[in-house]
Design goal:
Layout: H1 13-22, H2 26-59, H3 75-83, H4 91-102, E1 105-109, E2 112-115, H5 118-124, H6 153-163, H7 169-174, H8 176-190, E3 196-197, H9 198-215, H10 230-239, H11 243-247, H12 249-261, H13 264-270, H14 272-296, H15 323-354, H16 356-367, H17 379-383, H18 386-399, E4 406-409, E5 415-417, E6 420-422, E7 427-430, H19 432-436, H20 459-463, H21 478-495, E8 496-500, E9 511-513, E10 517-519, E11 524-529
Parallel strand pairs: 2-7
Antiparallel strand pairs: 1-2, 3-11, 4-7, 5-6, 8-11, 9-10
Helix pairs in contact: 8-9, 8-21, 9-15, 10-14, 13-14, 14-15, 15-18, 15-21
Bound molecules: protoporphyrin IX containing FE.
């Protein structure tokens, strides 16, 4: 066997090394490789990681910001910790403990901070902000190419500008007939149903409204006998993506690439859920492509929220969206509204059933604009009902929209927030959950109490109320959401007495924070039609 330390002289080192390597047998090479590998692992574990940890704790520009030190050891270590062993979706609640311990600004990763301060929130989440969405964290593959993942200000501004007119208050008012017709269908479906999974029912309703509006093609989710179309069940199972995909994002990219190469029948055999989600994604893309063909053929008076995206806008310097961007936005508009709306209506119904006195106060108010249980109503009439509006706000406060940390990058100029200098590229993050549960603003924050919104002066509550986020990237669908929330809740409560089903367990309502809140189980109810 060759010596590991060959007799070489410095004069002609590279050549001598090459000759030495060429003289080695395969067995020798393997031994060298093992020794080199072992030495690398050893120095990584016992030298590189500890030295890097010491740098991060004492010498990094963010060293002055308090926080749990174990979060600074390794990003991979953190990812493994927060995605396995029942920890998934609980980061938000741990953050709460850290804020109690360390104060309103906490360093949560080597290059990331989390703050709980509404004035800083308003500085970062404002129109004209210099803090873009974080490029390293808005990378979800299912929304790739869509508005949600755009981090560049100008590009996002142009894309939003093309979609926004269809979501203005006036546009949503014109949609009232559509929303009311879907709500009627939803309520008619409840009639005669036994145990109702109303969490899914609400999501089917949201899906049918937005698909009809977006692509003039209702996906007829409300037709499903149990409000459980395949794609909805598949989305439910895939929302909780497996830990390995979060721990090794490249693996997810590889799997996506791999699935793209397979035909649908093979995918169906490997994973029926992935196949159902892909079918749904195709359905959205096909619907929007069909509209584009009609548009290109000269049918310019069609109603589609994508009309402006079909064409260049030379004045603004916006290029027409590509087919894959259109498909991504088509999927986003359905998915962005479905879970958020469904969850908010689920919270509203749960707390009204749990608090009969609140429900009966709401019912009395609703009777002033809906004489009969089956009456239609306009959103404008509902806007003048203070108690209903208070119930909706309280439900949104409990639903939290996108509760977990929303990440934004510090601009190239760097920034000072809450007395700490943050170098360019630092990721800042904050969570609406903390504002909505601040006990100084919302006393007894975990009590569903609509009355808090009826106080003489609610400016402080409004300041802390951010279910749709704020500023340049505020939810584009918020007017539509208000329309759907108020018409659905008002007409549901006016028409039916809702009660918990015997199969319903309180623990179902425990939730964890993925990008949206996911409850442990569904809200299961029974309904009885009101006589008057
Ligand atoms: C109760 C209902 C809803 C809530 C609480 C809600 C909440 C939110 C929040 C918090 C964001 C910001 C996310 C971020 O910064 O990453 C957002 C973004 C967005 N929402 Fe909603 N949403 C709701 C309903 C809807 C509906 C019905 C639509 C239908 C079109 C919609 C479409 C969008 C879109 C497209 C974005 C991305 C905007 C952008 O990145 O510029 N949302 N929503």
């Amino acid at each position: 066997m060759a010596s590991y330390f060959p007799n070489i002289t410095l004069g002609n080192l590279p050549q001598q090394l090459l000759q030495h390597i060429q003289s080695l047998s395969t067995g020798d090479l393997l031994q060298y490789a093992l020794i080199a590998g072992g030495a690398s692992v050893f120095s990584c574990v016992f030298v590189y990681i500890p030295v890097r940890f010491i740098y991060r704790v004492y010498f990094h520009p963010l060293a002055g910001i308090p926080g749990p030190k174990f979060q600074l050891i390794s990003l991979y270590f953190s990812r493994v910790y927060w995605t396995t062993n029942g920890n998934k979706g609980t980061f938000l609640f741990r953050l709460q403990g850290w804020h109690e311990k360390y104060g309103p600004i906490v360093r949560t990763a080597p290059n990331m901070i989390h703050f709980n301060d509404i004035d800083t929130y308003n500085q970062i989440f404002k129109v004209g902000t210099k803090y873009p969405k974080s490029a390293t964290l808005y990378t979800n593959l299912t929304t790739q190419g869509s508005l949600l993942n755009i981090t560049d200000f100008h590009e996002a501004h142009l894309r939003r500008g093309a979609l926004q007119p269809y979501f203005s208050k006036q546009s949503v008012r014109r949609l009232e007939g559509l929303i009311n017709s879907k709500v009627s269908k939803f309520l008619d479906r409840l009639d005669g149903m036994d145990t109702i999974n109303i969490s899914r029912g609400f999501r089917c309703l949201a899906c049918d409204v937005i698909t009809t509006y977006s692509y003039e093609q209702c996906f007829e989710a409300l037709e499903d006998p149990a409000f459980a179309p395949d794609w909805l069940l598949a989305f439910e199972s895939l929302l909780d993506i497996p830990p390995f995909a979060e721990i090794f994002p490249p693996l997810m990219i590889f799997l996506t690439w791999f699935f793209e190469k397979l035909d649908r029948a093979t995918i169906r055999k490997i994973s029926p859920s992935v196949s159902a989600v892909l079918d749904f994604t195709d359905q959205c893309s096909t619907a929007v492509r069909r509209q584009k063909s009609r548009w290109d053929a000269g049918e310019k008076d069609m109603v589609t929220i994508f009309a402006q995206l079909f064409q260049d806008d030379p004045k603004k310097g916006r290029k027409a969206s590509t087919d894959s961007e259109l498909g991504a936005d088509a999927l986003l508009t359905v998915s962005a509204g479905m879970d958020t709306l469904g969850h908010t209506l689920t919270q509203a119904t749960y707390y009204l059933v749990k608090n009969p006195d609140i429900q009966s106060k709401l019912l009395s108010e609703l009777k002033t604009v809906m004489k009969n249980p089956r009456d239609d109503v306009s959103e404008e009439a509902l806007e003048h009902l203070p108690f209903l509006q208070a119930c909706l706000k309280e439900s949104l406060r409990f639903a939290h929209g996108a509760p977990g940390p929303l990440p934004r990058d510090v601009p190239p100029s760097g920034a000072t927030i809450m007395g700490h200098y943050l170098p360019p590229g630092t990721i800042t993050s904050t969570s609406q959950y903390f504002y909505h549960t601040n006990p100084d603003i919302f006393p007894e924050p975990l009590k569903f109490n609509p009355e808090r919104w009826l106080a003489e002066d609610t400016r402080e509550q409004e300041k802390y109320f951010v279910p749709f986020s704020r500023g340049a990237r505020v939810c584009i669908g918020l007017n539509l959401a208000w329309g759907e929330l108020s018409l659905t809740l008002a007409r549901l409560v006016r028409r039916y007495e809702v009660s918990f089903s015997d199969e319903f367990k309180e623990e179902n309502m425990q939730w964890k924070a993925l990008f949206v809140p996911i409850t442990k189980g569904p809200l299961l109810v029974n309904v009885k039609e009101r006589r008057e």
